[in-house]
Amino acid sequence: MKQKIQLLVTALIICTSAFSQEVGFLFKDKSKNVEERVTDLMQRMTLEEKIDFTSGMRLKGHGPGQYDGTKINNRLGIPAFKIYHGPTGVNAVRYIKKAGTYYSTPINMACTWNPELVEETLNSMSKELNAAGGQSNAGPGMNIIRDLRCGRSFEYFTEDPFLNGQIAKAYVKGVQSEGNIAILKHFICNNQERERNYIDVKVGERALREIYLPGFKTAVKEGGALGIMTGYNYVNGFKSSENKHLINDILKKEWGFKGVVMTDWSGSGKSFKRMIDAGLDLEMPRPEKYIVADVLKAIKDGEISEEQINEQVRRILRVMFISGVFDKTPEYQLDLIATDENIELARRVAEESMVLLKNKDDLLPINRNEVKNIAVIGPNGEYGNHFREGQKSYHLLQGGGSAHVEAPYKKTSTPFAGVKNKAGSNINVSYEPGCLAEHGFSIIKSDFFKTKNNKPGLNAEYFGNNNLEGKATNKIDPEISFIWHKIPDIIEQGNKYQSGSKKGFSVRWKGKIIAPKSRNYSFEVKAFGKAKVFIDGVEIINKYRDSGNWDRYAVGNTYLEAGAHNIRVEFRKFSPSNQCILLWDYDNDEYLKRAIELAKKSDVVIMPVGTSGKLESESKDRNEKLNQTESLSLSRAQENLIREVAKVNKNVVVVTYTSGVVCEQWKDEVKAIIYAGFPGQEAGNALGNIIFGDVNPSGKLTVSIPKSISQYPDDFYSYDDKITYNEGIYVGYRYFDKHRLSPSFSFGHGLSYTQFEYNNLKVSQLARVGEVKIKVAITNIGKVKGKEVVQLYVNDPVCSVDRPQKELKGFNKVELEPGETKELEFLLDKDDFSFFREKENRWVFEPGAFNVLIGSSSKDIRKTERFIINKL
Fold first, then answer.
1. Under DSSP, is residue 510 helix (H, G, I), strand (E, B) or coil?
2. What is the CATH number of the domain that holds 544?
3. Do 793 and 767 have their domain in common?
4. pLDDT mean over 485-489
5. I need a labelling partner for 527 at 20 to 30 A (CA). Which of 168, 399, 570, 626 fits?
6. Strands ordered across the beta sheet of 200-202
7. The pTM is what?
8. Residues 865, 800: contact at Cβ < 8 Å?
């Protein structure tokens, strides 16, 4: 009887405990650890709920209730985990009606070579993310900048794997310090945007291990990153989201990653079975392959296991609990977004990111007491009709795509405004754009066209096919500037393929074009589809590629005498998009004339030039060769502007707003060049402080700027769905070193208004094999305070495999007063001297002779020391 009572009491206790847990929901108890809470919640979820939970939700409306992220489970009270875009700021205007602070872009952050400042910046951005109701940031983008033509180069940090990891680690720590989650992207080898959904990157294991993976590894193992986003591309035959070797074998098993692996937005694989088997946890932003019924059937048929689904859900929930999404209700605190304090921080980052590339005759800094008139001349200097016909778009000083931040133009410090603001009341600062922005073209207006009846415009024939055949509908178009939508205003598109590419339509425009004066004219066609332009019967443009949205522009040149010339333009629709616009460079003449007059009467000319968010952006690359020589060059209009202004003023400072630009055609014509990148909403004030010496420039390049794209091997870029990384580990400065090529400006390069001397390099080995301590003394031998980035490279002169001439393994940014000396210390271990041997699929350390190289850039090595690491 006693035993029965004891059993009854025990059973009652168990039932009571179970009931209390059911009522109390253990997973909602903040005192429990994360794994306990995850386990409890998973036990309450049905299998169908778990499967549904592995794909996200995108709500396309506006307001605080809209989001991209995980699905809400109302039955269990599982809230949404919100993912906001924007690695350069909180891109959440559609949710909260207020733009976050637009900080410097990732390439600028890396140009600071200051991880502490990067972490501080991302901590600030993370606070704004909380105030905007988000829990994670789709960033950082940290693919290696293999080729600057990649349209997302500004979103990435560098060409170097070590620097990539150090900046990414700081970024992750900053984001996650406020309870949010950083999402590293794009895993991996998303090194060009063209054909990004289809391109298969063939890359060797050694290159993966030594170049493309180390940054991610550092961000995961040292930074503690909890989010990974796969790329759209394939790697060695497998879609990134289906690549088991990369996700399961390396990321999860080898590196011990505990977080969530998600697809890019609509970046799913071909098979949910392969995605699940590879270790892909979350499909974003909506279910495309992770369909509940399909996954249930696969489990029933034994093709995948329920435990695999449990692992996916466990990882998603773990990240949600860590982020605190279960324990706090989002509070939309707009007063904490874009505060004065955050904007001041944005300025500091911008200042440290700007790189002084050239400073002949010490033109900079400008002495306020020695100049009376300063001209700011350049299309990126200020808003105006030269930029998208007067649009005050934030893209003037930003890259495009999901990385943009909709910073209001009234809160964006433009270069003209910044220089004027910092110049003081005794200096007159004037502005002229000098030329049209971006490509340097404007739409040809009807005044310059004549029909066969001598009326303004052109005769147009519209055909109900894309072959310019059959009966046409005739009309007169005042100009060629069309963006047709799904229901175009033309009869011939009235078929079921009107927004597709099967039948489409075509147009032929004919008439006269009036050349206002005799000169060489450049024309541009901006079109989705195929287009040709003929003047006086001569084909000057043949936009022949039928490649959807990848090739949008084509340029041609011809000399025209003043007067009327025959023109024929043909457009054939192939792309799902519908666009055809004809532009020319004539409107630059008046801009140039005014710029030259201003330059003549100015003491110094500051020239802000570059690209914009339309030219450098996700889903496109800089490969159109717009000036028919260089796809990395400025437009012809901008290059011509620089040369013409330099003829009338010897004190010219060019400031480039772009991730990188070939400048060999004009760099010898000007005295000073500043690489500004895309430095954020305080771009102008930061530039003003640099120009006048209120801040000493300390940025260093994180990429090698080539003299020409001809310095890249032909196979660095692909126009189809395959590419092979034949260069292996020789990317960036490693490539230039190996092939004895001199770039225009080298990796790590950046000048200062002072000078630094390197002395007393000492190398000592520690007790453990491969551990080395390096010391070097740095002295500021100039007259002003400044910061120097001391870079440490390692060379392995005798090795069983071919190795780079140098590899970055350490850096330190040090600030010194005039005459001050500081001793810097670096610690290396055997991993810093190791290489990856593919045959054995492992890292190998070979003791022996090594060289340590200390310098101010990869080409400016100041001190070298050889030492021997002995075997055990």
1. strand
2. 2.60.120.380
3. yes
4. 53
5. 399
6. 238-239, 234-235, 200-202, 722-724
7. 0.94
8. no
Strand ranges (E), 203-343: 227-230, 234-235, 238-239, 260-262
The full DSSP string for 616-654 is S-TT--S-S-TTSS-TTSPPHHHHHHHHHHHHH-S-EEE
Tokens for 565? 């010339």
Give the list of residues 6+ apart from residue 584 with CB closer than 8 angstroms, or none: 441, 442, 444, 521, 522, 523, 524
- Vertex 864: Cα angle to 860 and 869 (nearest 5): 140
pLDDT of residue 490: 56
Note whether 435 and 450 are same-domain residues. no
Return the structure tokens found at 575.
């792309």
Quote the number of domains for the chain.
5
Both 505 and 562 in one domain: the answer is yes
Q: Which domain holds residue 841?
A: 756-869
In single-letter form, the type of residue at position 184 comes to L
**Euclidean distance between CA atoms 705 and 709, whole angstroms:** 10
In this structure, what are the phi and psi dihedrals at residue 244, rounded to the nearest 5 degrees?
A: -60, -40
Q: Which amino acid is at 230?
A: T
How far is residue 188 CA from its own chain's centroid? 14
pLDDT, tens only, 621-660: 987 555 455 689 999 999 999 999 999 999 999 999 999 9
**Could you give the angle at which helices 340-353 and 115-131 cross, rounded to 10 degrees?**
150
Q: What is the pLDDT of residues 655-711, one digit of tens each?
A: 999 999 999 999 999 999 999 999 999 999 999 999 999 999 999 999 999 999 999
* pLDDT higher than threshold 90 for residue 185: yes
